[in-house]
Sequence to fold (376 residues):
Amino acid sequence: MTTAAIIVAAGRGQRAGGGTPKQWRALAGKRVADWTLNRFKGVVDHIVLVLSPDDTEAWEEFRDSDLLLASGGNDRAGSVRNGLQALADKSVSQVLIHDVARPCVSEETIRNVLVELETHAAAAPGLAVTDALWTGDENMVTGTQDRSGLFAAQTPQGFRYDAIVAAHTAHPGGAADDVEVARAAGIEVLIVPGDADNLKITRPEDFARAERIMGTDMDVRLGNGYDVHRFGDGDHVILCGVKVPHDRGLQGHSDADVGMHAVTDAIYGALAQGDIGQHFPPSDPQWKGAASEIFLRHAVELAEQMGYRISNVDCTLVCEYPKIGPHAQEMREEMSRIMALRADQVSVKATTSERLGFTGRSEGIASVATACLVKS
Ligand code: MG
Fold:
């Protein structure tokens, strides 16, 4: 079966406060929408992101991504219809429809819905209501309500693709969710167990609760890297990707960029994936004179493949000369470009070793680096 998820992100989310629509606000280090999208990546075959026509920055940002983009409609149902339309030529058999404002949805919940769709036309997570229910006016209880048989509806709500397309086409509008649309078309919907952590961010205080939930399964990794290269003949050195004039050069199999090597090894270290020598053996002639950018890019890609994002790197160069200070900013910018990070996530600094040891005698340059990676 070919599966897809439609992430409905076209709302303006004003109840959550903060001015910016809630899907673009930060939550535990990234935006709500990024958390939500990551939950579905690798689980379904296609992801449609439904964006407001007003979110021009988001359109620009996601244009070249793996995501399919659709424009929001006049209401939520219109947005879903546009999302379904974006899948028209993808031979999708099952589709999940999910609110972008539920970033804490677990992979288990998503998979549970998909499994049930193998044998049911529709399935959606619901939580049996356990609190007593009241009716009330502004501040007084006016009655009680029997809670038996009541469920709190969650998403992703899953459907056979053709059936939900037909149901949305036929529906007159005004439905609370896609389950209501499906039921109006006679589709039976199975309830799969919901998850109390799968909250919908609605009010300002929901951000704090979502961060607490995210925090409980946060996987943060540190790695260190250390490298040394010896001075030899030459008229420049390459440090953190920047060519620095000097009366000597650094010797090495590659371009001998000792700073970039330490950063690369720090990333490999955080991933427990060995070191540069293991991935790019010095015995292999193809890496002779290679730009170290190749190594760093490889480490960054490996981190991404393993589901980690780099939170920051810090690199210290140890040498008497050349002086690093005048070049440090350019080094930060160059490494952040290679790693697709912001410059404020990349630190390059330097120290001398008080003329002690091999760095003090200017026999070579040493570098140490630390990288912090966070599971996406
Ligand atoms: Mg090296």
Summary: The mean pLDDT is 94. The chain has twelve helices and 19 strands.
